[in-house]
Amino acid sequence: MSVETLALWLIVGAIAGWLASTIVKGYGLGLVGNIVVGIIGAFIGGWIFAQMGIAVGAGIVGAIIGATVGAIVLLLLLNVVRRSA
């Protein structure tokens, strides 16, 4: 993985994490936590859409959409785990 690719994933993750915490109010994990959730959410979103056979778009916009959906799912799951603990 090149430095440019890594930087792009970090930027997409940051955007997705911020969008997810804005959409799912009250479940944010702070700036760094939201970025981590966004990056992990990118992989979750990509996997979910691939399993369903759905293409969310090409390029950076599609990556942000998929990552944001994945980050929202991850934030909701983390909230369930935190409530039950």
Give a quick set of tags describing it.
mainly alpha; 3 helices; globular; transmembrane; transmembrane helix
Give a structural overview.
Helix 1 (3-23) packs across helix 2, helix 1 crosses helix 3 and helix 2 crosses helix 3 (59-84). By secondary structure, this protein is an all-alpha fold. Helix content is 82%, strand content 0%. The chain has helices at residues 3-23, 30-52, 59-84. The longest helix has 26 residues, at 59-84.
Layout of helices and strands:
Elements: H1 3-23, H2 30-52, H3 59-84
Helix pairs in contact: 1-2, 1-3, 2-3
Membrane topology: Multi-pass membrane protein
Organism: Candidatus Viadribacter manganicus
Transmembrane segments: 6-24, 31-50, 56-81
Short description:
Keywords: Cell membrane, Membrane, Transmembrane, Transmembrane helix. By secondary structure, the chain is an all-alpha fold. The protein has 3 helices and no strands.
The domain tally reads: 1
Q: Name the overall outline.
A: globular
Largest sheet: none
Instruction: Tell me the series of helices and strands, N- to C-terminal.
Output: HHH
* Contiguous helical run count: 3
Radius of gyration: 13 Å
Number of strands: 0
Global mean pLDDT: 82
Give the helix level as a range of percent. over 70%
SSE-based structural type? mainly alpha
Q: How far from one another are the termini?
A: 37 Å
Low-confidence stretches: none
The share of residues in extended strands comes to under 5%
